[in-house]
Amino acid sequence: MRPEYVRHDVANLDTTYLSGLVRSGVASGVLAGAPARGLVAEATTLAHRNGGLTAAQWDWIVALGLDAGVGPTASGEIRDGVLARG
Questions:
Q1: Which of 55, 57, 64, 69 is deepest in the core (most CB within 10 A)?
Q2: What is the pTM of this model?
């Protein structure tokens, strides 16, 4: 899993490849804890900057967080923090 690919997929909210990359990162131990939470924060920030955070985007980000080991409650807290700053 190369970080630049993950950033590209997050920036484009690419549902085709990112979930597989996240699962691979978790399996290899590269993506856990703070990096996983950071991924949810980055996806939320990018969606918000690109014209708002739609319900469909949020559902996808929550699913992405679950793949990375971030529960829905934690993802909601991350989202609230991101939106409060932006």
A1: 64
A2: 0.76
